[in-house]
Amino acid sequence: MTASDGNGGAPAVDLSLMEPVFEKYAGQPGALIPILQKAQDIYNYLPPEVLQLIAERLGIALSKVYGVATFYAQFYLERRGRHVLRLCDGTACHVKGTPALLAAIKDEYGIRPGETTPDGELTLEVVYCIGSCALAPATVLDGRVMGHMRPTQLLQRVKRQIGSPLCSEEKNLEERTRRSR
Amino acid sequence: MAVTLKINGQTVTAPEGATILEAAHKAGIHIPTLCHHPDLSNVGACRICVVEVEGARNLQTACTTPVAEGMVVHTDSEVVHATRRFVLEMLLSDHPNDCMTCEVNGDCELQDLVYDYGVKWPEHHGTRHNWEIDPDPNPFIFIDRNKCVLCGRCIRACAEIQNRDVWNFAYRGFKTKLVAGADQFMLDARCESCGQCVAYCPVGALYDKMSLGKGRANQVQKVRTTCSYCGVGCNFDLNVRDGHIVRVTSAPDAPVNGMALCVKGRYGYDYVHHPDRLTAPLVRARWLEGVEEKLQSGEWRVFISPSSGGNGRDSSESAMLTPDTFIQTDWDTALDVVARKFAEEKRLRGPTAFGMLASAKCTNEENYLFNKFARQIMGTNTIDHCARLCHSSSVAGLAISFGSGAMTNTIADVTTQSKCIFIIGSNTTEQHPVIGVKVRRAKRYLGTKLLVADPRRIDIADYADLYIRHRPGTDVALLNGLMHIIIREGWHDQEFIAARTEGFEELKATVEKYTPERVSEITGVPVEQLEAAARMLAENRPGAMLYAMGITQHTVGVLNVMSCANLQMLLGNIGKPGGGVNPLRGQSNVQGACDMGGLPNVYPGYQPVTDPAVRQKFEQAWGVPLSDQIGLTVTEMVDAAGRGDIRCLYIIGEDPMTSEPDLNHVRHALEHTHFLVVQELFMTGAAELADVVLPAASFAEKEGTFTNTERRIQRVRQAVEPPGEARPDAWIITQLAKRMLALGAASPRADAPYAGWDYVGVSDVMREINALTPIYAGVTYQRLEEGAQLHWPVPDTQHPGTPILHVNKFTRGLGKFVAVDHMPPAELPDGEYPLILTTGRVLYHWHGGAMTRRARNLKAMYPEALVEINPHDARKVGIQNRQLVKLASRRGEIISRALVTERIAPGLVFATFHFPEAAANFLTIAALDPVAKIPEYKVCAVKVMPVSEN
Label partner for A161 (CA 20 to 30 A): which of A46, B62, B441, B533? Predict the structure, then answer.
């Protein structure tokens, strides 16, 4: 697996998008994690070609890059759905009903935590406390926090979100990035 | 600054910065460890070494906690023991309870700890891992992650010893997993199959695949010996069970390599037991009498060559008996045939009708005996060996520049003391892998600068601070160009030049003409790179130069070597630690074969045959008059044999049918040799053409010494018996010599001290070497067995050896600058043959490939010849990767698969000589260096074209 190899029919990854990132962090030691974060911002996950490229450009072994990328829950090595639903299963949310939410999503979409629907629309993730215990059970859909969710309500929201072509994880990210500037 | 502390009530002093573990071990206090290894960095991962430090909040890991003044440490308190037991219970809770069948039973650090701490197998398990066993298809390294204790020693060994960084942990917590690369197969993750990870694994998680089920620690006998492949001289332990080598294990105290080994050394041992081994002497029927009867009585058998489809042992009656049929005879018959023929030819045609090829794969003692046989018994100096084809230019060139032709510094010195290592014409990673490892470590951990110049972008170039791709055959121009810049900038070491050298003004005048612009034009290297390289060499002194065949195998090989010497003298890099001109020798004992007089112009120890005093010494020792005529070299010998001037050719452990240039010519010559004797392990190309084939013993089947590339003499020890009737070369040559003496072929004076051939073991031969070879005078078996590390010259038994040559004085007195001009190679590309062919070797094979092609998994890794070609050239003639191509020169052609790669420059193709059916030497040109007589293997003109699969 090298950056120049093809990737077996999957849509090609535009590695040139990484150039500004490398430029920004050039010569900075310890920049691996921020670079991985930026890469994920760009591609929505960390494709193997990008990990290889980062390894080559930083002069770090691929095994080291991979070790870091898999260590942190924030990094994704699998292509993710256009929409990402995060369910908090921290203590408060668990007690207030997250298991029922998980069951509802599984019944409706057939996916478990960490999985993506075959049509690539929805990824389900479980996180452990997002610091919004007062809103338990707390959920995050495409970066927007939704509190006090019940199964039917959650399914409605998810359905609406998937139906709306204007909303996606990337778009919300862009929006948030813009706002944070 | 020393620190004083108390460990278990005992007052202990340790240097500042030492760990508690180091301080304790030094004081003789044992602290158990698991993730710690003295060769590797400490990570404190396993918590087995925890100790109580008074005043500290928690238990501390002894392997990572530095000592402090007044510290009070308890290593054996109840809380410490309880904690260690808990750690072990946790490990066992997710570990298979299968010590009964585990490969490392009896050699397992976890097992020992569990035993020592009396830990019972936990009754209740939590979640257990269920990893797939042996999931990686590589042929060498077995993985069972269920046994992994996540100590990370493999990760650190791969990173810190091998600098390959294949391994790492991925994921987190219970899911933590040892992965190669991005959870790939090992070979896709830059693994070079050295097996260091296996060597450092404390449990059975990583193991040698070839050794699975072959024998555990208490079932094998370990025999320490020296590797039979390249000239690095790695030591290791052959693990022997029931007369078979079942595994090679690292020897931590190996002087050159420590635990490090390469894929050939660790996994290339199985050729020793290959069914192709020759197990009986073979004589063509035409040289025998009474063949029919002996065949009928079953005393002799017809030999069917393995290559012709038989298994080599077949004696089917249906075999047609012709005069050319090889008959498997007894030793007496075969030796008598050879001795009678040699004696007869000597009597009828004189000594010049005989030629001998000694072997860089045989021991020092054996090579000494070969030299004695040729000179004393046959009366000729026509003895040479394949060093002619690799480093004769080094021997000749460095003898002119310095006065003696060998690596000036040691491997350890170069890789720990140098500020800059300049590698030119050496594919170090693949040909001298353990030196490659050490160079990479120097670069990574010592900040040594690395400059690599090679026409191919070889692996070591990936680690270089600066990589220069010059055109093949332009080394003199490149080196002159660097010297031009150094002198222009005044960077040369004027003090050294004035005090230690001569000829500087001539050199200066010559390199004056090699302006960067002109050099850039000749070499294809950009001017900026030339300037940067010169600056790197000048600013980082002392610097060492490593080179190999890329420098020597040219018609200007000697000039190349002298240019290397010029550069290093100019920089003042000679005779000091971290400097030197260091030719890397390619075979286990090629240095020794040269040292022992396997050369046509010198007796053992480079004593010239033309020097009357020297000759007189050997005449008195051996009791016969000796020839004062310099003998023929390998290439000349083959020619002479083809012409009929040499009637008897005796070839030992060497296959000219792969290693010589222009093989079609060689085949013709050997076919027309009147009487050809080949002494070999296998039925090689030359053996196929022989009149008599004598089956020899491998390195694992005999005693002796090898001299490695840094002039270090090391022991070779017998681990197993030779197969069938195969015998050590020393036995064969001694038997032959005695028969020749009985036939009156030579009549040494009885009173000469070394006239006879009755040796009591190889140490007896060494005593004779000591007496006649000043540079080996102090090399005794007793000293070697006591662990003495001797680099010649060792002038007496008290002398500690000479790790660095030319320290205060060059062997010849003053170092000589020899001004050298660039000359183009003998054959350059033209319209008909538009590409340059350069030749070499690959990691998984060695030399003519007779051994490595019979090492099952080395062969599996690289099963057929590949021709490397640049994508640009491949496109031009329509060649796809892995397509069959024909490569043709004016002398011959080969069919091989193409490897389309950027590793090779446009206009250049690369081929190996490991595979007889597609050996590059059918194409190479027998154009010789006029002084060293080395052929120009590195440059000839070829054309390439695709061929169809049928």
Answer: A46
Q: Which amino acid appears at position B392 of this protein?
A: S
- The CATH number given to whatever domain includes residue A158 is 3.40.30.10
Q: Which value does ipTM take for this structure?
A: 0.86
* B946 confidence band (pLDDT: 50, 70, 90): very high
Task: Determine, for residues B166 and A63 on separate chains, whether the beta-carbon distance falls below 8 Å.
Answer: yes
Contact B180 A63 (CB under 8 A): yes
Q: Do A66 and B182 touch (CB under 8 A)?
A: yes
Asked whether the predicted pLDDT for residue A181 surpasses 60, the reply is no
| Ordered domains of chain B (ranges, CATH) | 2-76 (3.10.20.740), 125-273 (3.30.70.20), 350-385+585-597+609-800 (3.40.50.740), 392-578 (3.40.228.10), 835-946 (2.40.40.20)
> Under an 8 A CB cutoff, do B165 and A51 touch?
no
pLDDT tens for each residue of B463-517: 999 999 999 999 999 999 999 999 999 999 999 999 999 999 999 999 999 999 9
State whether A55 and A109 are in the same domain: no
Kindly report, residue by residue over B685-703, the tens digit of the pLDDT.
Answer: 999 999 999 999 999 999 9
Q: Is residue A121 part of a domain?
A: yes
Closest to B204 measured CA to CA, from B131, B95, B119, B130: B95
**Are A94 and A148 in the same domain?**
yes
Residue B522 sits at the vertex; the CA angle it makes with B928 and B546, to the nearest 5 degrees, is 60
Give the strand order in the sheet containing A122-127.
Answer: A122-127, A83-88, A139-141, A144-146
Q: Which of residues 28-67 of A touch B (CB under 8 A)?
A: 48, 51-52, 61-67
Number of H helices, E strands in chain A: 8, 4
Strand partners, B142: B207
**Which residue of chain B comes nearest to A77, CA vs CA?**
B182
List chain B residues with CB under 8 Å of A64. 165, 168
Instruction: Write the pLDDT tens digit of every residue in B817-831.
Output: 999 999 999 999 999
Residues A60, A145, single domain; the answer is no
Are A113 and A137 members of one domain?
Answer: yes
